[in-house]
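Sync notes, pocket subgroup
Present: LS, DG
LS reminded everyone that the earlier model was apo-only. Rerun requested with 5'-O-[(L-methionyl)-sulphamoyl]adenosine included. Inputs:
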Amino acid sequence: MKKPFYITTPIYYPSGNPHIGHCYTTVACDVCARAKRMQGYDVMFLTGTDEHGQKIEKKAQEAGQTPKEYLDVIVGKFKTLWELMDISYDRFIRTTDDYHVESVQKIFEKLYKDGYIYKGAYTGKYCTPCESFWTDSQLVDGKCPDCGREVVDAKEEAYFFKLSQFGPQLKELLLDEERNFLEPKSRVNEMIHNFIDPGLQDLCVSRTSFRWGVPVTFDEDHVVYVWIDALSNYISALGFMNEKYDEYAKYWPADVHVMAKEIVRFHSLIWPAMLMALGEPLPKKVVGHGWITFGNSGAKMSKSSGNVVDPFVLCERYGVDAIRYDMLREMPFGSDMPYTNESMFTRINSDLANDLGNLVSRTVAMVIKYFGGTLPVDKDFNDSDEDLLSMVDALPDYVKDAYDTLHISDALETIFKTIARANKYIDENEPWVLAKDEAKKPRLAAVLYNLLDTIRRCSILLSPVMPHVCPEIFEQIGEEKTEFVWEDSEVRHGLKADVTVKKGRVLFPRIDVEKELEELAALSAPARKLPEEPLKDLTDFDNFAALDLRAVKVKSCERVPKSDKLLKFIVDDGFGDRQVLSGIAKYYNPEDLIGKTLAMIVNLKPRKMMGYESNGMIMSVRDGDKFRVVEFGDDIEAGADIS
Ligand code: MSP
């Protein structure tokens, strides 16, 4: 019976394309999963997508699609990227999968039945157009942080989870030195000081303001709060409270949940509290790594800030293994990693092209040059080899621990120190001098054999990080095994004595930094496209002056029955109310436009459309194949003229 090992990534929001931030966590988990498989574990590596919530509902609406249509495309991109990046996940969960929905509903029911969830009222500040509740601290200058409009006091019926009662148990869990539940340690202090010590509040776990979620079975006006839905994925994916899988007993509790720091709070407070309330065992470990930040600005690389580096482009140009290596090597455990293309090129050139690539190609070339490709069995090992060999002996245990605990950068740093040591060993032993003396051939054979065997052992340890290149290295150094087994890295002189090497391709071509920087910059600069409407002929100023252009305030807005294009507005033009129609129904929710200050031509002659009179024209700007209204801040008065 193999020992089980269960590792998870967060389930990502498919509200935009995947970027290298998502890649880091997924690749780090992949390394850990691969290493555990090599060590003989029965691994379950779970990833997936978190598909419910208002944001997704809105995005789909903006794209003129149903949520599921919208999601399928982006989820497809996540899966394609994971395939390209060689992610060896065992299961991919989507929170829209039926079996997951079933589990979430049953979990919610059980918590309600057992008294951990109760019905209450949510009071807070409400932004009507955004349909969102905000706490006082979330407001920006007392206004909605999303749209900047006024909020009102509101009260809504909602279900609450009794998080407040779990404070002492959670504190004990986090402070348990032996358990080491949350790493790095700095996050433990953060959780205790920022959340537990000030007093945990009960958590509002249902919403009635949108529909795109898991319905509460016994009160269908409510959908389950996305985080309750999302966190449940870690057990629903194993068949907890559903019929789809039957692996809960085998894999739960998870060995490690991996994520970045911003969602550690959900995983180290809400998630254990939910499990305690369900009476289920807690995961063994939660690891919260730092962010990939953009350049040196410290800003998190994220979809919403637009500073996203496209992993598809990077993998295609520089190779999947080089990108995997770079990310993992550059992210120090627990801290952020500022990403720049330049530092990536430098890292690839120095570690991969110079140190590892050269070590392999020099060694193989020397075996071919001095021995025609096959080493003789007769070798003269001596004590001066010990320094290198004992360094390699120490690697497997160290690297195993480091991979297990997601200290992957430390593992790589140590492996590459050994690779540098091996390069130095070549210079110390001067094979080109030994080769001149026939009597020294056995010594020359020993030196080259030590090098090949060091490369073999390092390749085994590097194979979870570089799953494409390491098999190629095996081929070049004449290792006939095709499977990477951890124990083989522990064996000194495990390579066949009369090994035959094979010259292969350059494993990591050197990157021309200047040229690549220029090419990447050109790729990311959007191609200039000519606007769709050509420029019109010149006109007199009088024609312009004849138009009465003003700011107007939208008082009401609704769809025109039987028209999928038209919205009907009542706007205040500063003198009074007027009705106007606009063909933008495809791009907006009518409610979202109420309260906005828009630009309008007010003196166009009235015109009838679909039986309604339109008095003027609301101005919009083309945005690809959509139109967006031209709008002003709230502080602009109705009737202000535009010139
Ligand atoms: N859906 C939630 C997670 C639910 S888990 C039960 C979510 N999704 S997310 O798409 O925003 O993904 C957040 C996670 O993606 C981070 O915690 C991290 O693992 C990864 N990263 C996203 N951007 C990142 C960086 N810029 N840097 C490093 N990791 C980042 O939160």
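DG: The radius of gyration is 31 Å.
LS: Confidence is low (pLDDT under 50) at residues 303-308.
Action: DG to write up.
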